[in-house]
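In this supplementary section we document a worked example of the pipeline. Step one takes a protein sequence of length 142 as its only input; no multiple sequence alignment statistics are reported here. Step two produces a three-dimensional model, which step three serialises into structure tokens for compact storage. The input and output of this example are shown verbatim.
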Amino acid sequence: MTYHGRDEGTVLAAGCVLWRRSPADGAPEICLVHRPKYDDWSHPKGKLKPGETALAAALREVEEETGHRCVPGARLPTARYLAHGRPKRVDYWAAEATTGHFTPHREVDRIVWLSPAPARERLTRPRDRELVDALLSTHNLA
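The serialised model returned by step three reads:
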């Protein structure tokens, strides 16, 4: 999907469920971002820029918010909801972290790497918890 303006007023965004193998035991860990503006825990995501594909936006947002590069994997369910009274569509992918280092900034002040069960508990919104389940089933990481 490429950004084509408002798409009938819908805000277009994209993100990833960023994961890695634990350095300690090889078990899957999921990266969550804390956004101080909303005081919430979520997956890295953001709005598409003009001319940008959803996947390119998702990868850009992961790097901007977490400092990590990643390799995209399976497409995950699309989230649709109202944000500030406007419809919003967020396309998601699974993405395995490769290299990088987090530096706190204005938009994201903390990240955490958690195993799936604690990640589900830490996430603020139920729709984000469903993405953890989709990642695990898609990649057989459970």
